[in-house]
Design brief:
alpha/beta, 35% helix, eight-stranded parallel beta sheet
Length: 249
Amino acid sequence: MSHDKVNLPNKDMQGVDQVSELEVIVLNEEDARVAEASGADRLELVTAIGEGGLTPSYNVIDKVVNRVKIPVQVMVRPHSFSFVYSETDIQQMRKDIEIVKQIGANGIVFGSLTENGELNTSMLKQVLEFSDGLSVTFHRAIDEANDPVALYKDLQSSHMKVDRILTSGGAANVRMGLQKLKAMLESQQNGGPTVMPGAGLTLDNIEDIHGELKAREYHFGSGVRKQNHFQFGIEPKKIEEIKGIITQR
């Protein structure tokens, strides 16, 4: 089952009308079902969330992708030691991406740095070749870079087909990274990957943060769950209320 990306009208930082999209982290088929029914626009499927998210099993990918109609982005990350990968790692990721394509997911979530904390351009090019035809999100590896804003601009100037970046602005959470996120969003007006803020977003803070950033997309994890914790299930009302806030014109 393949999923077409849905491009909704947006509002950039200069005030053009928009409806922002909501991406939600899911861990299994039940999460996916509830998130979709509650109004999520896209899902990020991961396992081992306590380690920042790793590649799920092929069985879970298959169950989730064939359970929902909204796009599913699958984490492709073989380990949590770092965002520096070996040749063995890249071959594992190639295999994982092939399976993701066969199952029919919308895309992948990936990120890689050099040992010096810069964009690993050669590895990203390989992954983009493997994932040709899939949507690609560059994940929060960007927040471990020496200069997240510079890395974003490197992605822009490279013209590589990365659809979006998931970032907290190089900080522990979006609130702390607001200034760098604003810099990325300003740069985004010149084209390039969509900047998708994520980390620490909750129903309690999204109205203020959206008021400051007016981002096209937002990424929620524990913030849409009961007690704001991955130990518990998704709370539909939170997704519904968040959607109401970020889709206000």
